[in-house]
Amino acid sequence: MAPRILTLANQKGGVGKTTTAINLATALAAIGERVLIVDLDPQGNASTGLGISRTDRALSAYDVLVGEASVPEAAIMTTVPNVAIVPSTMDLLGVELTIAGQADRAFKLRNAFKQLDELRINDQAVSYILIDCPPSLNLLTVNSLVAADAVLVPLQCEFFALEGLSQLLQTIEQIRSTLNPRLSIQGVVMTMFDKRNNLSEQVLHDVRSEMGDLVYETVIPRNVRLSEAPSYGKPALLYDLKCAGSQAYLRLATEVIRRERRLAAA
Ligand code: ADP
Ligand code: MG
């Protein structure tokens, strides 16, 4: 079976894309999936957060996008059981320039995913690919939307949460109607929810009334463990499994799988 490909997109920075990529991947792996993360952000926070040092990144998403390496060649195992990553390097900053003039510039990642057959994680095929996008609707994010089955949108529980969302939804709709008709929205995950702050509750309410069932039941709390873990090169689930943040990502993983089964059956 081909892996399900989910992209974590929101052109705003600091909303929890990378934190969600790392911890959702770990949670999915913990319940038996084989997960590949593709780090498309030149900042490389997902790679660093999973303990991949810069010197270990011989090949990166850049090499994959420009066709100089296959996904199996560029993928490396992380210390997280059953999670591999195609890391990012600063080279990604230049990828737009390299591919902008090419007719298939938006299809680079999709084409690269055609050669996944030899990629094995602990002797089994990859079942989920999570793409961590940069904070922009640039060609990298477009490549991820063209390659993906579905988008997962992290939204921060803050006053301007919905600002910019319509632009993202418009881009998704544009890609669906042209380059990738099968693209769907997996869901919207509310992050950094602070129960002591009335504003968080208000934002959650507003987003739920705007987006309805697209919003996951699971809400990711603001939790210091989630922000500490990357400095140890670990997902929060391996740093402190019992913390509220880790537990929320485990619940999110079961919701994501439930929705995937529904989408796949539809
Ligand atoms: P993005 O990838 O969208 O830019 P990040 O996942 O890097 O966002 O999150 C931005 C910052 O907020 C990081 O320092 C991260 O550790 C922190 N952070 C993310 N989610 C939470 C959370 N639920 N609770 C506390 N801190 C968080
Ligand atoms: Mg990020």
Topology:
Elements: E1 4-8, H1 17-30, E2 35-39, H2 45-49, H3 61-65, H4 71-74, E3 76-77, E4 83-86, H5 95-99, H6 108-112, E5 120-121, E6 124-125, E7 128-132, H7 139-147, E8 150-156, H8 165-177, E9 184-191, H9 198-211, H10 224-228, H11 236-239, H12 244-265
Parallel strand pairs: 1-7, 1-8, 2-4, 2-7, 8-9
Antiparallel strand pairs: 3-4, 5-6
Helix pairs in contact: 1-12
The chain binds adenosine-5'-diphosphate and magnesium ion (MG).
Observed structural traits:
9 strands; 266 residues; single chain; binds magnesium ion; 15% strand; two-stranded antiparallel ribbon; binds adenosine-5'-diphosphate; 7-stranded mixed sheet; 12 helices; Rossmann fold; alpha/beta
Report on this structure.
The protein is built from twelve helices and nine strands. It has 266 residues and is α/β, with parallel strands linked by helices. The protein has one domain (4-265): P-loop containing nucleotide triphosphate hydrolases (Rossmann fold, 3-Layer(aba) Sandwich). A seven-stranded mixed β-sheet has the order 3-4-2-7-1-8-9, sandwiched between helices. A two-stranded antiparallel ribbon has the order 5-6. Strand 8, helix 8 (165-177) and strand 9 (184-191) form a beta-alpha-beta unit. The protein is globular. The model has no long low-confidence stretch (mean pLDDT 95). Bound molecules: adenosine-5'-diphosphate (ADP) and magnesium ion. Adenosine-5'-diphosphate is lined by residues 13-19, 45, 135, 191-192, 220, 222-223, 226-227, 230, 245. It comes from Devosia lucknowensis. This is Chromosome partitioning protein ParA.
